[in-house]
Amino acid sequence: MLASFVEYLHEKGTLTSQELKLLANASVQKRIRKNQYLLEEGEVSDFIGFVVKGSFRLFRVSAGGEEHVMKFAIENWWISDFTSFMSGQPSLCYIEALEDSELIRFTKEKWNLVLEAAPNFKQIIDNLTARNFEAHQNRIYSNISETAEIRYENFVSQYPTLYNRIPLYMIASFLGLTRETLSRVRKHAGKRSSSIIQGSHGDAG
């Protein structure tokens, strides 16, 4: 697991050997079974996890029992309820493994120590935090202003393999659509792709 994490870090920035050693000593490698919960509502999210393998969803449950998916995390993504993590308050969310998964996990105490002692790592995290904030804003805008077709296309672009790995109803929840609407959008998208392929073959012939 650590080898994949180190490779990811090298892609994001330059860390010293001392910083890499510090990260290795501060982290815990953890295997999570499919359908196992990393976090449940009412617990404090006192960890941050780096996904080495597998996938997760962060979701909330309404008073009426309806699930609302707020985030997915796949390989080379980070997962936590960051609101609870930063505030120390009980979480309103659940985090569930959608597949058998592997994590590099940091407790809040270890995480803060690493950020203080490893400035190059902190710079990587600061850059990622800024990008994630921008992505979060863009998603809110997309869900309130764009068509179902565009939302689905953006999802496929952002998660090019995930839509074949998880149930359709979770994707619909994430996109703010009904399952029926998403099924219609996917069907039309498939027909459009097929038409493009057939047209390109005709031109070539």
Short description:
The chain is an alpha+beta fold and 205 residues long. It folds into 2 domains: 2-145, Jelly Rolls, CATH 2.60.120.10; 146-205. The chain has 8 helices and 8 strands, in the order H-H-E-E-E-E-E-E-H-E-E-H-H-H-H-H.
What do the pLDDT scores average to?
Answer: 89
Structural category is alpha+beta
Number of strands: 8
Report the CATH architecture of the largest domain: Sandwich
Descriptive report:
With 205 residues, this protein is of the alpha+beta class. Helix content is 53%, strand content 20%. It has two domains: 2-145, Jelly Rolls (Sandwich), CATH 2.60.120; 146-205. It has helices at residues 2-12, 17-26, 82-87, 108-117, 119-145, 148-158, 168-175, 179-204, and strands at residues 28-32, 37-39, 47-53, 56-61, 67-73, 78-79, 94-97, 101-107. It has a four-stranded antiparallel sheet with strand order 1-8-3-6. Helix 2 (17-26) runs antiparallel to helix 4. The termini are far apart.
Overview features:
disordered C terminus; 4-stranded antiparallel β-sheet; alpha+beta; single chain; Jelly Rolls; 2 domains; 205 residues
SSE order and pairing:
Blueprint lengths: L1 H11 L4 H10 L1 E5 L4 E3 L7 E7 L2 E6 L5 E7 L4 E2 L2 H6 L6 E4 L3 E7 H10 L1 H27 L2 H11 L9 H8 L3 H26 L1
Antiparallel strand pairs: 1-8, 2-7, 3-6, 3-8, 4-5, 4-7
